[in-house]
Amino acid sequence: MARFGRAFPAPLRLVAPPLSTLPPGPVNLRVTAAAPTQVTVAWDPPPDAGVLGFGVWLDGVRQGGDQTGTTFVFSGLVEGRTYLVEVDAAAEQGRSDRVPLTVTTPDVTSPAVPEGLAVTGRTRTTLTVSWSPSSDNVAVAGYGIRLDGVSYGDQPGTTRTFTGLAAGRTYRVEVDAVDTSGNRSAAALLEAGTAPDLPPGAPPNLRITDLTYTSFAVAWDEAADEDPVTGYDVEFDGTLVATNQAARIASFPGLVENTTYTVRVSAVDQLGQRTMSPAELVVRTLDDTPPTTPEVTAAAGEETITVAWTASTDDFGVVGYRIDVDGVAVHSTPGVDHTVDGPVTRRHTITGLVAGAEYAVRVAAVDALGQESADNTVMVATTPTPFAPIDTPVYRVGAWAGNVRDAYGVDWVVEKASGWASTPPVRPRSASLGGVDGAWAGAGQYGSRMITLEGVAVAPSRAAMLAAKRRISSVLEPREVGTLRVEDALRTRQARVRLADQVSVTDEGTVAFRWALTLKAPDPRRYAVAPVSASAVVPDLPGEASLTLTMAGTYPQIPARLRLYGPVRDWTITHQESGTVMRAMTGSSLPADPRYSLSFDLATRQVWAYVPPEIYPAPRPGRSAVAHLPAWFMLLPGVNTLTVAGQPVAGASGGPRLVVEAYDAWV
């Protein structure tokens, strides 16, 4: 219809869909009987449907044609399997939808008995068992575990660990399989035992801690055991002398020397178990055989005896040698003596002796027990002086001496001696030494000393006089440096001298002549004949050790020689009284080999490095091993304490040794 020239759409009409023409399906589809291979189902027909028959399907496969009955038996099925059963209804207007039903046949077959049940691990308190997976017609759900009849429930895995068990006990293990339907197999059986509780092991490191002629002591480390060790049994030569003692030491006094004894030690744990095989130690008490006797040779001078000896042996080791003179010990050495002149092997010079006297000299070897070798005393006579004193002091230069009657019967009388004692006085130089090459800057060296000796010589004959003239004229060559030694009632002192002028000789009669010696001592100090020496050994590094020298005399600064042996790194040498410290160049070190050393001459301020001769045959300047500027020092009259310290050298054992030698000095 159109109004106002405009067309309107037709009205909307709703149309209902047609009702289904399929007949209704069966109702109440159900299982009425079930067996492992057969299932019976039933259903009810739909009400008022005019059903002509029913179709039956199993897992989508139709089972025969339509039937009018409302039951059906499925046979030939598989046990424990799930099937889909469907039933529909047939009517004149067609077939209904299928009505489904899930059906499972009963599973009544038990799984196979688990095989291979065995122990795969054990300790004193645990057992671990495992087995092979079991089989079943459907599926194995798990395994039941029992230990000595006690159930541990079901588990899915094929391994089981039992804890908290008793050591060394046998247990009955049972394992069965269960399937998803609850069917259980017969149990696999196993008799299994935990590990036994072993006794403690033998105490380790049984060792000697003290040994004498008539006793010894032993110690050992803690024994290992699963349980705490409470003590130790100690057996001595087959006799139990201690039971379950807590201490890990034992002493055995009152024994026989040079006799073998056997010690056995067993550990005891808190369960009372003892070591099966005890630790054993065979010990021999010490033998009192002394060291073998060194063979001694001696070379005598006027005031010295140089002793050399062969090496001694001992069953417990020679630790050193001692030199006795007339029954008094004058020197000890471990065999290699370290001196400022280098290592000396089994040789020593005895100084300060009287010329023409006889001495009893012995070299005793000493072992680790303090035992000495047999007496090997030799009688050694020093060389007599070739003159007889007729006055004091006695002046001596080389083979010539004044105030004496010499071997030719010539009397040498010293009538005037100047410059040796106090005339003319020796004055210090005005310039102070030190500064650029060291910290020591005292008054320094004194000026040279001029010494004049004048006198008369009286010979027994004209020929003896002429010979005496030749002897004094050749006492020193013009450039030769000799030693002037002066012996008075108090002491003997000496100085290094050379001729300052020609030897003056003037006849005075037929068998006498006047003589004059003019000598110059560049170093004006008057030194003692025998040196004062000491050494210090640092036992462990890092560490330090000190030595003490007591110097006599009137000279305010006494020179000395020092020698340092390794092993040591970054060493220091400290003069405690002055506080002066001489240091190594950083990183500088000396090895343990005593052929390597550093020598310091405090008088000349020279440093020499010594190395094995196959490396370099002569000492060479060693100033590069000393830090710049080195703190030079001099010794002082009285007590002087020198301390050596340093750091260890990698791979070297032992400690450094400092040796110092100086002479008492007078102005």
UniProtKB/TrEMBL annotation:
It comes from the Bacteria. Residues 25-112, 113-197, 202-292 form the Fibronectin type-III domain. Pfam families: fn3 (PF00041). Gene3D superfamilies: Immunoglobulins. Keywords: Carbohydrate metabolism, Glycosidase, Hydrolase, Polysaccharide degradation, Repeat. GO terms for molecular function: hydrolase activity, acting on glycosyl bonds. One of its GO terms (biological process) is polysaccharide catabolic process. This is Chitodextrinase.
